[in-house]
Design a protein that fits this description.
single chain; 28% strand; 208 residues; alpha/beta; elongated
Length: 208
């Protein structure tokens, strides 16, 4: 079992390049430690389910990579109350996109943050509505053939080629990409934790 001693660091428990880019975009200094365990959903409600998944990831990573702040996240697409994760194969991606085309769906990202120094966990979900234009079967197949949908919840990436088929959103765009960084920052700020303040500076502030 691998262990990493990062107890004064911020740890992102995700291998998603999109979440990495979003945290880097707002200036967070962090390490990455991927959650690799099997996740279990016990709730049929998409919001509660994704919060549960994010918490499981954060707890797993916290046991592997010590960190002052450990962030777990999971994103799902919900259409007509059904949860859509990442497609298993090409046929699964086609099935998902046929469900989403011409309709409105929700993108829900669950976030769980373990604040080791405060012995506290922050767990929330952000919901964004996404409006998809009607698509022909040829357009759906052509998009799937790009390979872009295969590692993304709901079989599409709003920041990629699928942008041609998104007519609008209601809510946080970054949430659809994979991490609601504004909500994350504000939630932790309310707990007295500033993600943009490096650990060594936090320690100096406590000593003054």
């Amino acid at each position: 079992m691998r262990t990493v001693d990062n107890r004064n660091r911020i740890v992102l428990g995700s291998g998603s390049p999109r979440r990495k880019e979003l945290l880097e975009q707002i200036g967070v200094e962090f390490d990455i430690c991927r959650a690799e365990g099997e996740e279990t959903i016990t709730s049929e409600d998409p919001v509660e389910a994704v919060k549960e998944l994010a918490l499981q990831k954060a707890q797993e990573v916290s046991g592997i990579c010590s960190g002052r702040i450990v962030i777990g996240a999971d994103t799902v697409v919900a259409s007509d109350g059904r949860i859509l994760g990442k497609p298993k194969d090409r046929e699964d991606a086609l099935r998902m996109l046929r469900m989403l085309q011409g309709k409105t769906h929700q993108v829900i990202t669950g976030v769980a943050v373990i604040l080791e120094d405060k012995k506290k966990t922050v767990n929330f979900a952000e919901v964004t509505k996404v409006y998809v234009c009607p698509m022909t079967e040829e357009q759906i197949e052509r998009y799937v053939d790009t390979g872009e949908p295969m590692d993304k919840a709901g079989a599409y990436g709003i920041q990629g080629r699928f942008a041609a088929y998104v007519s609008g959103i209601e809510g946080d765009y970054n949430n659809v990409v994979g991490l609601p960084v504004a909500r994350l920052y504000q939630e932790l700020l309310a707990e007295g934790t500033d993600l943009l303040c490096p650990a060594d500076r936090r320690e100096r502030s406590k000593e003054q």
